[in-house]
Amino acid sequence: MRIGVLSDTHIPARAKHLPPLLFDIFDGVDLILHAGDLVEESVLDDLAAIAPVEAVAGNMDSFEVHERLGEKKILQLAGYNIGLIHGNIGSNRSKTPQRSLEAFAGEAVDCVVFGHSHQPYNERVNGVLLFNPGSPTDRRREPRHSCGIITLGKTIEVEIIYL
Predict the structure, then answer these.
(1) CA distances from 23 to 46, 48, 50, 110, 126 (A)
(2) Is the whole-model pTM more than 0.90?
(3) Which of left, alpha, beta for 68 (phi over 0: left; psi -120 to 50: alpha)?
(4) CA distance 63 to 113
(5) How far apart are CA 49 and CA 83, in angstroms?
(6) What's phi and psi for 149, nearest 5 deg?
(7) Edge to edge, what strands does the sheet with 111-113 contain?
(8) Distance CA 71, CA 14 (A)
(9) Sheet containing 156-162: order of strands
(10) Which pLDDT belongs to residue 156?
(11) Could you list the pLDDT tens digit for every one of the 163 residues in the chain?
């Protein structure tokens, strides 16, 4: 199973539309995960033209988006439990990857997909793969925009793709 992953699109504040290259990168994926801060709900419709979408709300999303999507979920995909969260919930003393992992404490997850920092991240902590695809529209302190691909097979493989 191939999954396209993105976060922090901030449409229309950071870009008017998703980058066209993103549609090429995600062409043929089985599912798309958006880890919050869509800002404009139309992003979900744009992504759904490629593949089914699962998403959570982030700190910049409206009350309506929070009500519709929730802030955290666990998806059972190809025999794995994938946690999906934005990354802003929890102790402000913790960095975003640690906060995201802590949000699933006591729950059996193989991978946690998060956003919030706009910084690509790929590291295994205590047996759990933590993955942040960065942002395809708002690179902040990063040199390039990015997104990701997760491949679920005998193992979980992740790839950060720079636009």
Answers:
(1) 9, 11, 7, 27, 34
(2) yes
(3) alpha
(4) 22
(5) 23
(6) -130, 130
(7) 72-77, 80-85, 111-113, 128-132, 121-125
(8) 22
(9) 53-55, 31-34, 2-6, 146-152, 156-162
(10) 97
(11) 999 999 999 999 888 999 999 999 999 999 999 999 999 999 999 999 999 999 999 999 999 999 999 999 999 999 999 999 999 887 677 799 999 999 999 999 999 999 999 999 999 999 999 999 999 999 888 889 999 999 999 999 999 999 9
Amino acid identity, residue 37?
D
Q: What tokens were used for 127? A: 């047996």
| Spatial distance between the Cα atoms of 18 and 36, rounded to a whole number of angstroms | 14
Q: What residue type is assigned to position 13 of the chain?
A: A
For tokens 């920092």, the residue is 117
